[in-house]
């Protein structure tokens, strides 16, 4: 086994606070395309400007028509959580991992069984009314768009506010609460893992620096990232293989076999 994984597993078992930041690389194996790079959505006929908050405000009908296409492209082929999501849920179940902070909006960590989750960029499966804050399923909003009613509006009687996907659009700030807890996790963790993020998009790109200033930083990626130079542990490879291997190494180092239920699945079941 990779020496870095063994050393990291020992550190995780000894640590008090452990959190992880995940990016698009974690969901790629589940059929969610990345935004950038070869095969990325922005190189595939979609224009980021169409999904800017200014577009939503000035042309909500056009925004939702384009958002429908984007949603189908992003989530139409999703096969559910993969071994990387399941491995992180398992680490939480084992009492080793405290929080997953994700840049992804696909909901796959929750589906895999992760309970303590910070979704920095929101949840694409939900939409909210900009007038009253009512939350509805994006699928219901998209059904309206498919039926020719764009923009979709709030189901609350007498409201009629426009619905907006519950994600951070271009031109919008991250939720202060979500970003605040992500920063706190980065600053207070003994070990901070980053998985499948190129770490180039601010402000999430600054979290590894805050983490490395306080504790240890582990970077998991198939390729180089912008923060490799800060990493105490550098694990190259597909997260669907490296994270289950980490779980195995952690389990081998736990003092006693931890008895837990099957909820959320385990890497072995995959
Ligand atoms: Zn409303």
Automatic annotation (TrEMBL):
CDD domains xrefs: SIR2-fam
Q: GO molecular function terms here?
A: histone deacetylase activity, NAD-dependent; metal ion binding; NAD+ binding
The answer to whether the entry has keyword Zinc is: yes
Pfam families referenced in this protein's UniProt entry, alphabetically: SIR2
Q: Where is the active site?
A: 121 (proton acceptor)
Where is Zn(2+) bound in this sequence? 129, 132, 154, 159
Keyword Lyase belongs to the record: no
What protein does this entry describe?
NAD-dependent deacetylase
The record's annotation in InterPro entries points to:
DHS-like_NAD/FAD-binding_dom, NAD-dep_sirtuin_deacylases, Sirtuin, Sirtuin_cat_small_dom_sf, Ssirtuin_cat_dom
Could you tell me which species this protein originates from? Answer: Halogeometricum rufum
